[in-house]
Design goal:
This protein is α+β, with helices and mostly antiparallel strands. It is built from 4 helices and 19 strands. The structure holds magnesium ion.
């Protein structure tokens, strides 16, 4: 019994020396750790809870540190405090601070339901994934019609189809809203014309909004009319067009416009386009239907077909698929 009393006195004296008034709580804590490694292990209580892992205490978060012993410790901590106890009070937690965030449960921000649909990606870039609607797989124009609803008259050859000049546009039988679109196009090798007259076709989203198809490899025209432009509205960010006869690979993310019941546009259409792997339209706002003359004005509409333009040039298209978003 006497030994115990002397131990408490020695320990207390040591702690008193280590944790004088000039020391900060962090310094005191570090001094105690040194002592604990060399002397009796006193229980630590942090905010009333016994600490089992001292490395979990951040010294910078300590508001107050006391060493209690004798009757006071035994009264508050019972048998655990009979040889003394280290009492730590931490700083109040400030909402939004790093410490407050550390205390949060990470599971609260995990979203498990609904589960994400599993699909199978194409074997190589540009191949249709398993949930795509394939609009042209190189064989026929079964998914396409002419403007008047009759059979599409463009020519299918070697896994592609080519504009038959004068036969008019072709459009999908199916109508779409928001889509991801993959399409590849090729300007004719026989160069005819200049500017808008060379290798001109077009991809019309929802039958109204033209993403320009043009031989812009070397031929010059107005910037918002070249390949990759939203025609007469937005020039492409770069011109990555390959030479005529080479396939140009086009990937589009299109968000359809939305309208109020009275027909006013609520959200204009937006489009992102990669041409040959280069972004040419970056979430571009479409200001209305494509107009050759004058400014566009939105007119409310629902889903619409994908339309390919007959501009009189034998432009070819292939590998066309969409995913509805
Ligand atoms: Mg065009």
């Amino acid at each position: 019994m006497k030994k115990t009393i002397w131990l408490v006195i020695i320990t207390s004296a040591f702690y008193s020396a280590c944790i004088g008034q000039v020391q900060s709580p962090a310094q005191k804590y570090n001094a105690l750790n040194l002592r604990v490694n060399n002397g009796p292990q006193l229980p630590y209580f942090v905010d009333g809870k016994e600490l089992t892992d001292q490395s979990s205490v951040d010294p910078n978060n300590i508001e107050k540190l006391e060493v209690l012993n004798g009757k006071e410790a035994a009264k508050l901590y019972g048998a655990k405090g009979k040889n003394g106890v280290v009492v730590i009070t931490t700083k109040p937690v400030v909402k939004g601070s790093a410490r407050w965030r550390e205390a949060l449960d990470p599971a609260v921000t995990e979203i498990w339901e609904p589960r994400v649909k599993k699909i199978t990606a194409g074997v190589k870039a540009g191949d249709a994934p398993s949930d795509a609607i394939v609009l042209f797989d190189g064989k026929d124009l079964d998914n396409w019609i002419a403007q008047d609803g009759s059979e599409a008259k463009w020519e299918v050859n070697d896994g592609a189809f080519t504009v038959v000049s004068g036969s008019g546009i072709i459009k999908t039988k199916q109508a779409f809203g928001d889509i991801q679109l993959h399409i590849e196009w090729r300007s004719p090798t026989q160069i005819v014309g200049e500017g808008q007259g060379r290798g001109n076709s077009g991809i019309f989203l929802q039958e109204r909004y033209e993403l320009q198809v043009l031989d812009s490899h070397e031929s010059q025209t107005y910037s918002n009319g070249q390949a990759g432009a939203i025609y007469k509205q937005s020039a492409p960010l770069a011109n990555p067009v390959r030479q005529p006869g080479e396939w140009q690979v086009c990937d589009v993310v299109y968000t359809a416009p939305t309208f109020s019941e009275s027909g006013r546009v609520i959200n204009p259409a937006h489009i992102t386009v990669f041409l040959n792997g280069v972004i040419v339209q970056n979430h571009t706002e479409i200001r209305g239907p494509t107009e050759y003359k004058g400014l566009p004005v939105y007119i409310a509409h629902g889903k619409g077909a994908l339309v390919l333009q007959d501009h009189g040039n034998p432009v070819s298209h292939r590998n066309i698929w969409v995913r509805e978003l």
